[in-house]
Write a structure and sequence with these properties.
CATH class of the largest domain: Alpha Beta
Largest sheet: 8 strands, parallel
Distance between the termini: 19 Å
Strand order of the largest sheet: 11-10-9-5-2-1-13-12
Bound molecules: alpha-D-glucopyranose, calcium ion
Number of strands: 21
Number of helices: 16
CATH superfamily of the largest domain: Glycosidases
Number of domains: 3
CATH topology of the largest domain: TIM Barrel
Oligomer: single chain
Length: about 550
Amino acid sequence: MTDAPWWQSATAYQIYPRSFCDSNGDGIGDIPGIISKLDYLADLGIGFVWLSPVFASPMADNGYDISDYRDIAPEFGTLADMDRLIAGARDRGIGIVMDLVVNHTSDEHAWFRSACEGRDAPYRDYYVWRDPGPDGGPPSDIQSNFGGPAWTFHEATGQYYLHLFDPKQPDLNWSNPEMRRDVYEMMNWWLDRGVAGFRMDVIDLIGKDIDAGITADGPKLHDYIQEMNRETLAHRDVVTVGEAWSATPENALLYCGRDRGELSMVFQFAHVLDGYEPGKGKWHPRAFDLPRLKRTLNTWQQVCAEDGWNSLFWGNHDLPRAVSKYGDDSAQHRVASARCIATLLHLMKGTPYIYQGEEIGMTNVEFGHIDQFRDVETLNFYRIETERGIDPDAFIRGANANGRDNARTPMQWTAGAQAGFTTGTPWIEVNPNHVDINAEDDRADPDGVFARHRDLAKLRRTSDLIRFGTYHPFDEAHPQVMAYARRLNGEELSVVGNFSSRPAPYEVPDDLAATGVDLFTQEQAILEGEITLDPWQVITVKTG
Ligand code: GLC
Ligand code: CA
């Protein structure tokens, strides 16, 4: 397996720069702040960082609205800082993966500015323009992901432009070959600067056929990704991960199959969507159901068993905190549940992603007033929903459960003022629970959440069984326990976790039974016959 790609041995770590570490007291995390934490990341043992956007941007969507792909937002630093970050990370064996946001740009990008100058402007066709519908209104009733119509009228030129997100995020027109060529040139420019790859924002939207009402997984999608690969990624030793909310077990290998010439892997969201009422989306969460979660995760392990590769993640900057969503963030169970869910996820086959703060078990925040929220999606929906008569407090409860700001409160470094994130006033409030939950305290605890992530990352780097072993789930219908084995060349790892805050009786199937030293606690563990697991206990025994 020595010729396997490097990223199959890597644990990834996502940084949301605005909330990670502020070096100059302006309340906004920045690149020098990240550089100051490179030793922390090296200690955790990660292989690459997925860096959420740091490009020049008016920050309507915190950088997912880029006004210049070849420059850095001044509040984050400079290109020279970026070069120092890439080099400093490389010295520690860490790659920097940039966020490629090319479904859309900012409306302040030079291309869009030019496009607005007239119907014949040179960059007009870089975006998607349509005449008004017969009634003078939008050309179609397609809705933006952030609420409201996906078309905004441009007075001066008398046409509507498409934005599947905020009006400040006009969609690029991927059917224009010059536009595609410019994107590839930009990607090569970053690759030549030494970046280790790209996370591709909403990449499943670029093949859209808007006149047919198709947005995700459109007819030209894979042609474009293959062209992008030929023009930029081919013959470079990089990692790529495409954000694909529409990915299904049926189409996933089109993106990441070995002979497809497309991507290393996708972020598939089936387990996230399982948490919503079918077809309804994030503002309509439904009760957690462990068998359903296991069925989904097991299916995805199966999808990439022979070909392709999985990404493994609980959270990111758009999702609630892992321990609050999947674990138990009460004082009694937070650490054990954070350790347990990390272990169950990271020992599957694929590349695990840690979202900043997850490695110390950071939790959701509880905001009481809409003024405390910063996220454009939450604020747009608040306006729309309260205008429709929804009770503001009910909306805020929903946002506290599932909204994106949960993941965006500042990284909790210490118990001190502003959690050690900034010496100034943070752009979004620090979670008051930083006095109990912070990196300094957690790292000092050998049984803490950080220590478990460090051990998991080390296993990912060093164990062929964990990288490449086959995956065998057990007792999918069990309401409390998640159990599986990994097997390779006569070696076997048995993993059994109690995914609940109550003791779990469990009859260990013969094919999973194992006795030996637990991989993490180093204590003698007996996985055999009738056992009872403590709340959130996870047992891992390797045999053979
Ligand atoms: C992706 C990003 C999200 C962003 C959206 C539009 O879903 O993860 O943060 O708002 O794309 O770029
Ligand atoms: Ca700063």
